[in-house]
TrEMBL record:
Family from the record: Belongs to the UDP-glycosyltransferase family.
Domain of life: Eukaryota
Key words, A-Z: Glycosyltransferase, Transferase
PROSITE patterns assigned to the protein according to its UniProt record, in alphabetical order: UDPGT (PS00375)
GO molecular function annotation: quercetin 3-O-glucosyltransferase activity; quercetin 7-O-glucosyltransferase activity
Protein name (Swiss-Prot/TrEMBL): Glycosyltransferase
Membrane-spanning intervals of the chain: none
Signal peptide: none
Enzyme Commission number(s) from the entry: 2.4.1.-
Amino acid sequence: MENNNNHQNPHAIIVAYPLQGHVIPCVHLAMKLASKGFTITFVNTHSIHNQIIEATSNQTAHDHDIFSDALKSGLDIRYKTVSDGFPLEFDRSLNHDQFMAGLLYVFSAHVDRLVGDIVRNSDPQVSCLIADTFFVWSSMISKKYNLINISFWTEPALVFNLYYHWDLLIAHGHFASIDNREDTIDYIPGVRAIEPKNLMSYLQATDTSTIVHKLISKAFEEVKMADFIICNTVQELEPATLSALQEKQPTYAIGPIFPTGFAKSPVATSLWSESECTQWLHNKPPKSVLYVSFGSYAHASKNDIVEIAEGLLLSEVSFIWVLRPDIVSSDETEFLPVGFEENIKGRGLIVTWCCQIEVISHSAIGGFLTHCGWNSILESIWCGVPLLCFPLLTDQFTNRKLAVDDWKIGLNFCDDKNKPITRKLVSDKIHRLMRRKSGDGDDELIKNIKDVKRTLENALSLANGSSERNFHRFINDVKARIIS
Ligand code: UDP
């Protein structure tokens, strides 16, 4: 642990958004801040905590505190849980909108009470609240307890910027009008041009009165009152977008936020039990295995899952496929073609969940069929694994644009999202990704991903990397604000 020779090291409460892709970077942010001398009180919802504990085989060690192993290295991270307003057994995946309504209308009351308790009873005194940008209560709670209001954004700056300028999209008729314009959007500060089909799914929706729209709209009113915004991205990856945001509010690109050494973290974060895959991978030739995962949150149609399964068979490529039980829906658990698991013996491995960073770091992995979650994209870049992009929901369409159109590190899975996926298309695309022959043009993917990987590595370089510098600047600016 770094001792900054500062007796007034800040104490920050971090509240993690209760979804897998937010909890993971939030935990690693907590570790990173604690390693710089911060005291952290980390807050998970009861439900997330419970799911993590149920998924962890070593339950006794972790029963009450997911950070217990990390504490052994001297970090000052305290752990609390809070109700999200629903009973533990409530199916948040099946009742998504009701869950989001809880986060919009009910959760703040629980957080308010907990933050009040922590503020009254903590030594050292709490000075900051770090809340995921999607929370709708951060300014209200930070004002009430006189805390510095820090917003943590876990997606690309481009996505942030588009939500931030939601009102401009409405004013120009690209969003929330009866007949949305379909021409290029070229008026968002810091975004030279973006096609409407690359907007986040919620900004492409025709019904804009949903709970999720209300939540995002409120969250982006809130973030305008944040004292500091920290983003899990890299300045050199999104320079124009970040500069535009930095003109509005103090914004720091501090990514990619990974566990130390990109190794399996001592802190359990997975919501499902991880299957061991490395033994199976050890027997496979280098770069021969396709890793397939659609993340923790999005759903795919049963028809798409069947066509992907048949396409994987047809391709004859080896694969690991992460298939959550609720990938179609938690009340639709029979989705694979009959006999599929027997037909793929030896060549394919199907798991509910795995330690993704461990799997994609393995030399046998040669490609990633991904839903384009932002963490997955960053992790794949870090491992130099090219992408086959199959966005399903939310920011994934915008992330695809960055990966395929801007950085050219991935291929599109479906070129026309209105056309149904067929097994032949699946097999052809997998061949293009996995069986690239030199000279056929796709080796560009490898060259490009190596370049982008270098950008990420440079950003984290202790000797003056941009994210390292930004992280230090952020810490110094927070400390200056505490003193003033
Ligand atoms: N992940 C994992 N095991 C899996 C699938 C995913 O550990 O079997 C992790 C992955 O490494 C990433 C996160 O879960 O850190 C998923 O985040 P992402 O932003 O990619 O997608 P989301 O789940 O938010 O849609």
